[in-house]
Prior knowledge:
The chain is of the alpha+beta class. The protein has three domains: 10-110, Beta-Lactamase (2-Layer Sandwich); 115-190; 198-354, 2-Layer Sandwich (Heat Shock Protein 90), CATH 3.30.565.10. The protein is built from ten helices and 13 strands. It has helices at 3-8, 28-34, 38-41, 46-49, 55-66, 112-159, 163-190, 202-219, 239-256, 322-332, and strands at 13-18, 23-26, 70-78, 84-95, 101-110, 198-200, 222-227, 235-237, 261-269, 277-279, 284-294, 336-342, 346-354. The strands form three sheets. Strands 7, 9, 10, 11, 12 and 13 form a six-stranded mixed beta sheet that branches. Strands 2-1-5-4-3 form a five-stranded antiparallel beta sheet, with helices on both faces. A two-stranded antiparallel ribbon has the order 6-8. It is elongated and about 100 Å long.
Amino acid sequence: MNYETVLAGLPDAVIAVDGALRIVFWNAAAEVLTGRSARRAQGRLVKELLPAGASLVNRLGETLATGESRSEAEGTIETADGRVVPVSLLTAPLFARDGSVEAAVAVLRDVSRIRQLEDEVRRGETLAAAGRMAVGLAHEIRNPLGAIRGAVQLLQRELGEDPRLSEYTEVLLKEVDRLNRIIEMLLDLGRPVQLRRAPLNLHQLLERVTLLHEEAARAQNVTFVRRYDPSLPPILADEDRLLQVFHNLVINALDAMTQGGRLTLATRVSMNPVYGKVDVGAGHRTMVEAQVADEGPGIPTAIRAKIFDPFFTTKDRGLGLGLALCHRILEEHQGAIRVESAEGRGTVVTCFLPIAR
């Protein structure tokens, strides 16, 4: 049996170095994980490919020095394009005939999907708790709100046409309605999402969303840019729910672009290795990607992991439920939502949705 062929075909990244930390083996999974080809990696020092202090470099060095295995359940590796990927890491020594350590091998496993699933479980538990709280409070809050609204309407009728006083009553009515909308959003966290799926033209839906926000965009000197794939197949989705998703995403993008700029809407058939296909219960389906990209200041690294958490917001006004609901709606579609952002260079939100068949 050719053991090198076996190692080359493993789904985990396998990297072997000699006693000088020079790379002698780099399998296909290592190419995918790091974004670096085996041809360009082999023969080079591992510290030439990875930054100083990288977990992989340190652990391989320790294994060569001590002849002992090293492991990290929560290490990281930096890819060729600068992304930091969470990995589990195990190193082991390779001995010469005389018992000396002549080389070392490292096995790395990409655990980013596991981390994402853990975050989604935690987020789901928070959503469920918020939903239970909302259901319990909704009845108690809605009754007095209904009474307040009725009393304000009666007061409005009694005050007549005085514009100064009617302005105050209009504010009261609007705020009561806003509280009712907040309660509805909270209830949405606890209710099962009932989807009415049907084949849907994603481009037509995005055009409906842009139509709603054209005036606001023009006032902020924001230009909509469309990069649609003309061959995009119909998706299988609930139109009303997806309108809610893209409405929220476009509002967030506009809020971020206080200095104007381009707000880009793009679509394509997904080639993503993780989200490009999904099992929707009737076999695997190809996914499409719909992107909303802004040219705002970007999302600070420190808060990026929290943006889908319910009640987390950086806005002066808002409950922090918009992205949490977007996440839930896309999950119910057997899709996903991912955010990429660089401070000073804007944010790209990608929604993955299954095609109709």
